[in-house]
Amino acid sequence: MEYMIAIVVLALIAAGIWYLSHRARGEEGEHIIPGVTKAAQSGDVFAQYKLASMYYEGKGVQPNSEEAAKWYLKAARQGHVEAQFILGIMHERGDGVDRDDEQAYQWISTAAQQGHPRARTLLESDKWLLYLDAKTQERDDPGERPDAPDAGGNTPEVTREQVDEYLRKAEEGDVDAQYNLGVIFYHGEGMPRDFDQAYAWFLKAAEQDDPDAQYNLGFMYGRGEGVKKDHAQSMQWFKRAADQGHEGARAIIEKMTKNSVSER
């Protein structure tokens, strides 16, 4: 009799454990997908990250790396550090997105800048140290940098009407228009070349935390273009751009640091 009672008790315990575990798994089930999706679509960064993870891990939905990458990207752009790290790994592997080391490095670096421990550790691996070294070599000649003004004037032709529209928007505070005017005046496209004006518009965009404008100011201060040559100011602007994850600025700072050490 006692033996039978023990069996019944054990069966009840097992059933209770199964029920609780099933219920816990149900919280990640398909019935919450509509609510999470609605919140994610409305811009909730945590819902975006959760939805991405559900698609990535196949919780409540069929696994879908492409859909996961879409929602990780939305969360990453809103500063979600774990989403940034995972998106970087996905680009490194070509998982749900194109395999792209540049995108991978950008997102992993952005996560590292926010203190993500695994991202910081990963950037110290041989692969990414060699990658950064190669990118630094490509930028040895500042005139070849792709996202800053160069002396070659390789920008598309700009019409006077476009310049007037940029001026209107820039004066209203549009950061993209301010940056574009900096490029236009630097190259002399649609307007006479004017480093003073280029500096003034890059400065306005940089003060609104545009990393490309900050990066360009670093070079203008370093060369004395439109402003008095000032190494300290040059480094300050490069650092501000690097703090936002600008890869080119990070490479320049690292190169300058290495050169400074080797000269001692």
Walk me through the structure.
This protein is mostly helical. The protein has two domains: 2-135, Alpha Horseshoe (Serine Threonine Protein Phosphatase 5, Tetratricopeptide repeat), CATH 1.25.40; 147-259, Serine Threonine Protein Phosphatase 5, Tetratricopeptide repeat. It is built from 14 helices and no strands. The longest helix is centred in the N-terminal third of the chain and has 25 residues, at 2-26. The chain is globular and about 60 Å long. It starts with a helix and ends with a helix. The relative contact order is 0.06. Residues 18-27 and 139-156 have low confidence and may be disordered.
Q: Which secondary structure elements does this structure contain, and how are they paired or packed?
A:
Blueprint: H1 2-26, H2 33-41, H3 45-57, H4 65-77, H5 81-93, H6 101-113, H7 117-123, H8 126-138, H9 160-171, H10 175-187, H11 195-207, H12 211-223, H13 231-243, H14 247-262
Helix pairs in contact: 2-3, 3-4, 4-5, 5-6, 6-7, 8-14, 9-10, 10-11, 11-12, 12-13, 13-14
CATH C-level category of the largest domain: Mainly Alpha
Low-confidence stretches: 18-27, 139-156
CATH fold descriptor of the largest domain:
Serine Threonine Protein Phosphatase 5, Tetratricopeptide repeat
Q: Provide the number of structural domains.
A: 2
What overall form do the CA principal axes indicate? globular
The CATH fourth-level homologous superfamily of the largest domain: Tetratricopeptide repeat domain
Beta-strand content:
under 5%
Taking all Cα atoms into account, the compactness measure Rg is 26 Å
What is the rounded distance between the termini? 88 Å
